[in-house]
Amino acid sequence: MKNKEKLNITVSSSNAAVPGRIAVIGAGAFGTSIARTIARNHPSGRIILWVYEKELVDSINNNHVNNLFLPGIDLPSNISACSEIKDTVKEAEAVIFATPSKVLYEISLRVKKYVPDSASIAYLTKGFCKVHNRILTISETLGRLFPLHKDKITAIYGPSHAEEVSREFHTCLNVASVSGSARKIFVNLIACDYIACRETDDITGVDLGTTLKNPAAIAAGILSVMPKCGDNLAGALITEALAEMVRFGKALGAREETITGIAGLGDLVATALSSHSRNRRFGKDIAKQLLNSGISLGFFDKLIMIIRPEYGFEKISEGINYLAEGIYGIEPILELAEKKKISMPVYRSLYEILLNKKDPALLVETIKDPSKFDEIYKRTRVHVSGKRKGLEKKRGGIFRKTILKNAIENLTDDPVFKLQFEKYRNYFLSGVEGNSEKNYKSAFDKKEYELLKNINESNFEKGLKKLCDFYIRDVSDDFNSFVYKTAVKVLRVLNVLNRIKPGSPGIFKNNIKIYGNPRKIRKVNRHSNIVYASAYKSYLDFLFINMAIDRYSLYIPRFCVDRKIADSPLKSKILKLMGGYFINTERLVNPAYKEVVQAYLSTLVEHGIHILVFPEIEAGKCGAPAEINRELLSRILDALYKNMEEIALIPVEVSHYLKPAEKDSFNGKSILALKNVLNSSVKINFSDPVYVSEFSNSDNIVGMLTEKLKTVWQADAPVYPHYIFCRVIRDNNYVLNIEEAEELISRSLRKYDCTRNRKFKEKKILKKGLDFVLKNKICTVGDSSLSVLKKEEIDYFSNLISNHDLKNAEVIYNTPDSN
Q: Is the pLDDT of residue 300 over 50?
């Protein structure tokens, strides 16, 4: 007996008084197992379990079994269940908290006023609590809530699976408290022939050790389903996890021997390697989802996490019907590690896999060499799986309910949305003077006015749903394959009619020339969701691109149409049936409308439907490139993070021989007026695919993809000779001597490092450029000097290549005026 006292181990109760009424707050597997042990140790005592699930009350009280969390284990008759928290703790001599960490603070607040001052308090809960933006251990959290008990609060931890404790397997537990007398109370309750209790006053060390091992156990579960990962790597994981646990514990005031004791290393081994471990099982289930179909978080999920940090873990746990404490522990562990400058590469790699969709190979490589984590992290991409198939021909309208649900969730979770929305609402309503119909620009405006006017504080969410549903119906396509193919055939016929009319180049001289590798794009379709991303040159570019896609026999995308050109019900219907979705650029200042557009595009890509987008939203001023809408691009990329499906961006470049017509030129005209639009000579290039996952190792994936798109657009856009000629004119202050023009062109090409490209032929550029500006009355020639008549035209064509890398550009000498 003396030896046992020296080791501070108790296997049987002492003569100290034992509480007669014990409240256990939480009827999970471990809480129920400890309640059973206490009840069997002290048959005269009364143990009351507070049960959150009301159906469990009857199961425990009438059948003496916890059929939800501990099925098949008989419970002693001196255990009773209660769903009223007040009745559970009143007159209790001891209270043991056994709730999940994420609800401990909230439940403890409810319990606080009913717990007698004389009661002893202990806990089984593992993890951290965030209280007023501070991360606290469980002992610190309960110490704040129960200041009278602060130095007597007791932790009961150790390698103790509920499945084994309930079947009376031999177990060792740490009982930790600053107060020796408090420890003795709970040792006397729990210690028996199969449970040995080791006392310690290092409650911080016990808290940290048992919390830190949970994420490591999730990592062990992930490794168990990874290819070529076995016991060898599991041993390395435990070694490195323990080293990180010790560093973390010592930095926060724990003793190393506590972390390497049963509540640290002991619990780590049991939890990481056992089939009973929920954390290990959770890791296995998560890894299977990661490797097979994909989970994790998109751009807006991460925004929501700013307000509700636990949201991210709830999201990735969807479809897994049990709780693993380790998932809630990892974020506060890393937050504290960052503040204290503690190196924790294994824990960081686990976080990146779970929350940022990194390939699980990151964990494997980090365990093998933790010192190289930063280097490994930088080259680790998002893990992707195969794409969804079978929905390519579906219309976007069938996802209306999904889009509405996603949009409303994102908007109501955004803390600044309501303020921005009210600002837009007031602006819009004040812009419509009076209520007469003549003041509305369109039927769309009239309906929007009515919906906005009817939204108030009492019906805000309901009114917002109606408004968003209205927007979705206006934005969404109604794709019909037959209508699309018929419409494209009509466009082809109109194009042929243009080519046979007097003065045209002839039926065999196609004015729409296509470049690129269609075979490569078809191959991409087998494994990736395709997003055609076109630089915005003309509001009718979608027609030319669709004709090119049809000629290549590629999958038909849902394509962006500027709402302004669909100015009649007939135009709207035809364009929607062709697969067009509408964006009203003027409405993008409205946060609700913007969210609907983004949710619509994101939903289509998530479901494997190809889309054609113009990331710049509108054409730049006077031919210059516009800024890419990064927020829109971010939402489209969400499919990569939500479904782990590859997205292939296909950059598309459209080059117009003539300056395209303005938007309003098509308004009020028959759809047959397209015949005149199709008369233009256009060159379309489909660039090589850009795989989004290749940029997923960047902290700024949207920024890098934005720059990549710009670079490809600039390098791959077909160039007409008059673009270069106009730039030479502008570079020479709009004055050009014809006799010196060829030398000036050569000088300009040398300036832009284009001399190695044999496609740049100074004489042809001069001839074609001069013919173009004279024929289109942009310039006149007199006394060997070129005079500019239309400066804005010169600026337009020169701006088309103002930022271009021309070294490898495709120069188009076969122009409409060629013989």
A: no
